[in-house]
Amino acid sequence: MADLPDCRTKQVTKPFTHTGCDYAGPIAYTPVRRRGAKTMKAYICVFTCLTTRALHIEVATDLSTASFLAALKRFLSRRGPVKVMHSDRGTNFVGANSYLRDLYKFLNSDEFSCSLKQELTENRIEWKFNCPASPHFGGCWESMVKVVKNHLFKVIGQQLLSYEELVTVLAQIESVLNSRPLTVLSADPAEPAALTPSHFLHTAPLLSLPAAEVHDDNLSLLHRHSLLDKLVQSFWRRWRVEYLHGLQTRQKWNVPSSAIIPGTVVVIIDDNAPPLSWPLAIVDKVHPSRDGVTRVVTVRTARGTYARPVVRLCPLPSQ
Asked: Residue 192 CA to chain centroid, in angstroms?
């Protein structure tokens, strides 16, 4: 495996300067919720920042070039200009690149003044395609597509959403994924903090979603808003468990693993944590057993000091 490219490691001026995009789907939806409405297919267009690992989700009604250009325009209007776009060699991406290339030829013609031509040339988007039949080249954004697609389809199941409901659920899922902790931001014993993709987008973490906990499994059609909240909460529980398990990678039992030491910032596994809630703590003391293995530690949070087993703690990366 080669070294990471420069766009993955070097500091950029803003998120999504280097962006990877791909599709997930299809997913069934109905344009409006009424009797006799026809079912249609939609696709999820996922834009991933290669540097900050932030995520942006758009809905495309089909796999045509025009539909992708519409999704791209919405993405650029909300996230700002993009310098380099990475994708595979899908026909819709190739068509969009051809359209943009013809557009740039027109903008570089003599019909425009020199000042406008220079401004547009500086903000030009460079499009880079992967080698054909090599989806593993885009592993940076393919992993995010996998997260969105697998858990979303399991949560929705046979449920048929309207276009408005689908856009609402995807916007909340985008918020959930952008709240994941990446590394330690502050190791203050009084209130530890983690760096998340939302810091790069909003300069502040996303704290909560405006929804109450839904426990009823048999929701009627009269409670569609509660059904949407339940879908997002189910997605949160499924994906959160998978993400925390990824932070708890251990070696085989016959190989000693790195022990947790005092001062390590960890995420406490709480099965009842609401969406966007990542309980953080700092390891205050370790309590080794007779065999010298640490299985219980004392952690300090903003609310007090508690004893927790090591299997319920997930150290943040880059420590």
From this structure: 22
Q: Which residues of 177-199 are buried (b: 16+ CB within 10 A; e: fewer)?
A: bbbbbbebbeeeeeebbbbbbbb
Which residues lie closer than 8 Å to 219 by C-beta, 6 or more apart?
Answer: 226, 227, 230
Which amino acid is located at 263 in the chain? Answer: G
d(CA 142, CA 208): 27
Which residue is associated with the tokens 């909560």? 208
The mean pLDDT values, 10 residues at a time, for the chain of 319 residues are 75 81 84 78 89 90 82 87 80 65 59 50 66 69 81 80 86 88 76 83 71 62 72 85 76 67 88 84 88 86 86 82
| pTM higher than the cut 0.90 | no
* Contact assessment for residue 5 and residue 21, using Cβ atoms and an 8 Å cutoff: no
